Amino acid sequence: MSDRSEDVAMTQLPQLPRRVRFFSPVLKFLLRVGLPVGPNGLVTIRGRKSGLPRTTPLAIIAVGGRRWVWAPWGEVQWVRNLRAAGRATIAVRGRKEEVTATELDPTQRVGFFRDILGPHARGIPLGVWFIRIVDGVDLDHPVEAAEGRRVFELHPIGGRPPPRPGAAGIGSLV
Description:
By secondary structure, the chain is of the alpha+beta class. The protein has a single domain, classed as Pnp Oxidase, Chain A, CATH 2.30.110.10. The protein has helices at 3-9, 18-32, 77-85, 106-122, 127-134, 142-146; strands spanning 40-46, 53-59, 61-63, 66-71, 87-92, 95-103, 150-156. It has a 7-stranded antiparallel β-sheet, sandwiched between helices. It starts with a helix and ends in an 18-residue tail after the last strand. Residues 1-13 and 162-174 have low confidence and may be disordered.
């Protein structure tokens, strides 16, 4: 699917699974009180229309000093807000940090699922199973896993700048 046809296909918001709508507020509460819940953290992004801060619990994938967030259910509201804002505040175990976000292109997303998330999940007991059952993603098929799912790399503000397209980074893994 080309970038253009993918953008057109993603204009409708997907319906989040009921389990996500149910557990998201519970997870948000647990994270707010400081309980460690796997790789999850709270990500606060300014709303693209209201300008108000919106906080959602997300898995923050940290590998080799780099961090990513991904959207298993496609073009959801936090994705649109992060794309528009280009920055967020992440809170993990009581520590807050301002970050910028770079959205990966389709080729880079395949590299993320194949070279980052797949090996990372395989190193965690039940990691691949959890992603397959809860998120509906089969990491054994990275091209299909990347289709329609958005991925952002997070960069500390004042840290190293986001990589240029085609520069060394995830694009070089593809």
